[in-house]
Amino acid sequence: MLRYVEDYEKGRTYELGTYKVTEQEIIEFGRKYDPQPYHVNAEQGEESLFHGLVASGWHTCAMFMRLYVDALLPGAAVEGSPGVDELRWLRPTRPGDVLTGRLTVTGITPSMTRPDCATLHKRGELTDAEGLPVMRLTLYSMFRRRPRE
Amino acid sequence: MLRYVEDYEKGRTYELGTYKVTEQEIIEFGRKYDPQPYHVNAEQGEESLFHGLVASGWHTCAMFMRLYVDALLPGAAVEGSPGVDELRWLRPTRPGDVLTGRLTVTGITPSMTRPDCATLHKRGELTDAEGLPVMRLTLYSMFRRRPRE
Hints:
CATH superfamily of chain A: Hotdog Thioesterase
Strand content of chain A: 25-35%
Oligomer: homodimer
CATH topology of chain A: Thiol Ester Dehydrase, Chain A
Shape of chain A: elongated
C-alpha cells in the first residue's frame, strides 16, 4: 500500500507527535557535529547568551526529521528531496524539552524533470510545551504519481 | 583574541578542509534521525533510486557544520544563528566520499535588534573529490562588533 502524491492533500496539516530532548543527546550530537561551547558543556552554556546548554540547530532539524519520517514516510513513494528554504531557529532547544511536530502541505507542483513525479511543498514546525514555535522550515520532496491501472 | 564581525571580509572565500564519510557513520545517523531505507541499509539502498547507501541530507548539513566550526568558529564572537535559506542537496553523499567545505561571506548587515551586533550572510558549499557540488546553503550568523577602546 504505497502512498503516492495523490494521497497528500494541499492545505492539510499532519500531526507528527512529540520528541523528548535529553542532555546526553544534545552533548553527543554537539561533540560530533557542532562543538561550540553551548552545545557541548552545560557550564560554558551558562556563561553564554543562551544561559544554559542548547541543542545545535542542525540537531533540532534532525529531531524534526525523525518525527516526520516516523509519522508520514513509511510506505511513501518518496524519491528524495531537492532541499529546504526559510529554515528558522526561533527558540533554543534545551534538555528536558518536549517538542511537538506539525507539517502542512502548502503546494503540489509537477516535476520539471520527471513526468511520473510531483514536488510536494511542505511547511514544517516544531513547538515547545507551551505551544511556542522553536523551528520552522519549508521542505520539498519528490513523490511518485499513482501509476495508471 | 576574539574574532569580531570586523574580522570577516565581504567577498572572501574561506577553505574549511575535508570530511571523510564512512558507512558506519551514515547508518548511525540514519538510524537515529532519518530511518528511510536508503539511509540505514546498503541492500535496500541498492534497490532505491540512489543505487546504494546515502547519507541523510541533514547528516550532510551536520558534516558541513563540523568543518565550519573547526575552521572558523574557535574564538569567534558569534551569538547564534537565525537560520538558513536556499539549502540544496545536489548530489548524494556516499560511504568513502571525501567532501571539501568552502564558505564565502556574501554580506554584512547591521542587526535589527542589537546595535552591538551585525549579521553575517554566508554561502556555504560541499564538493566531492571531482569538485562537483554536493550541497549548497545560505547561512546567517549574528556576530558581535569589536568593542570601542
